[in-house]
Amino acid sequence: MRQELLARHNCISCSEIEMRPDVSESFTFLLRYSSACGIKNMMKAGASAGRRALGETGPAPHSSSQRPTTVPSDGETPTNGVLTPHRVSRKGKGASVSGMPPDSLKQLSRALKKQWQRYRRDLVRCQKRFSEKSVHELRVAARRLLSTVELLEPFLSRRQVGEFSRCLKQHLDCFDDLRDTQVQLPLVKELRKDFSGADRFYDWLQKRETRFAKQTRERVAQIKTKPLARLVSGCRKAAERRQSSAPGKLVLGAVERAFRQAKVLRARIDPGNTHTIHRTRVAFKKFRYMVELLAERLLPISKKRLGRMHGYQTLMGSIQDAEVLLLAFDKFMRKKKLDPGFARRLRAELLRRRKELIRLYLDAADQLDSFWP
Fold it and tell me: Under 8 Å CB-to-CB from 51, ≥6 apart: which residues?
């Protein structure tokens, strides 16, 4: 699969692929390419996850005094308070019904309650102290709340899941423009070293960030939790009323379906169409959050595997960030009078970086098969 995708991308030949070390064996492979292609800063947000994804589990050195260069990916926090941790063997590699506790449905119902409480807490915090950190934590809480409901999907009606998903995604949509701009700023800041004309683009993005921050703050302040609270209560009651002799089997079935969907979309990736990578990332993110929830208490899934999954998602996320940055620059060119030579050179650089990020992902694409069961 990896060779086929790379051949379609027309970046390197299959014989060259065979000569390379497997991406899962060395993080230096990723750093070597990212540095050579000028995309090292585009990968910093996922560097820690990338090290875990490529076999290194040690913590990455960092300075707490340094401002983060990019907005962290969803789910980057090490603990999320979804389920109360307890001692679980981390040696198991597979997921089996026999590994699920008999009260798994009850535990997931409790997890939904706890995740809902966390989401409300983070929402209040974001409304009172709006910041990049509070926005990130609220987005993570929202994604995990949605994933908890998706794990309970076999015990709920399609209408309940649909209403819950639409309601929560309306909340998440508030942050899209601001998050994208905050990711773009450090990338363009780095480009200013080699492209003097990039200063105008950077200033334009700063103004957009200010405007989007104001809009997002206003939208967050208007979020009402009562409709979502009713949906959470309804989901918990419906799940607790559902009688099943094998709830663990149904839960794992939901995870299996999410994994199969990610694999199907991965097989349909067209390297020339970044949307196909983006939709694979969205499907994989759903699967990954489900697995993380189960790993908190219900299944013995290793931290190393979870780290590798985070790194895999980060590779796809970097491509989407590069795509959105390119679209932002195109909009900037339409609005401002630029030197044609500068605009052409900078756009060519953005295209080159996106192409190299796609190559990095395609070389690791087959790692998906190792994440489940």
Answer: 27, 57, 58, 60, 311
Residue 5: the pLDDT is 55
Peptide bond between residue 61 and the one before it cis (omega within 30 degrees of 0): no
What is the DSSP track for 337-349? ---HHHHHHHHHH
Condensed to tens digits (0 to 9), the pLDDT of residues 181-198 reads: 999 999 999 999 888 889
DSSP 15-71: HHHHHSPPTTT-HHHHHHHHHHTT-GGGGGGGHHHHHHHTT--SPPP--TTSPPSSP
Q: Which DSSP symbol is given to 152?
A: T
**DSSP reduced 3-state for 323:** helix
Q: Which of 335, 73, 347, 41 is nearest to 208 (CA)?
A: 335
- pLDDT of res. 1: 59
Q: How many domains does the chain have?
A: 1
pLDDT: is 352 or 88 the higher one? 352
Structure token digits, residue 308: 């590798």
pTM of the model: 0.74
| The total number of residues written for the chain in this structure | 373
Q: Rounded to whole angstroms, how far apart are CA atoms 301 and 95? A: 8
Q: What are all long-range contacts of 271-274, with beta carbons under 8 Å and residues at least 24 apart? A: 271/5, 271/6, 271/8, 271/9, 271/10, 271/358, 271/362, 272/8, 272/9, 274/319, 274/320, 274/323, 274/354, 274/358
pLDDT tens for residues 111-152?
999 999 999 999 999 999 999 999 999 999 999 999 999 999
Q: Is residue 11 part of a domain?
A: yes
Residue 64 lies in a domain: no
Q: Answer yes or no: is 246 within a domain.
A: yes
Q: How far apart are CA 307 and CA 48, in angstroms?
A: 9
Range of the domain at 300: 2-59+70-83+102-370
Separation of alpha carbons 283 and 263, rounded Å: 9
In a domain, 94, yes or no: no
Summarize pLDDT for 37-60 with one digit per residue, the tens.
Answer: 444 444 443 443 343 333 433 333
For residue 267, give the CATH number of its domain.
1.40.20.10
Instruction: Read off the pLDDT of each residue in 213-240 and give the average, rounded to a whole number.
Output: 92
Torsion angle in degrees (nearest 10) through CA of 321, 323, 324, 326: 120
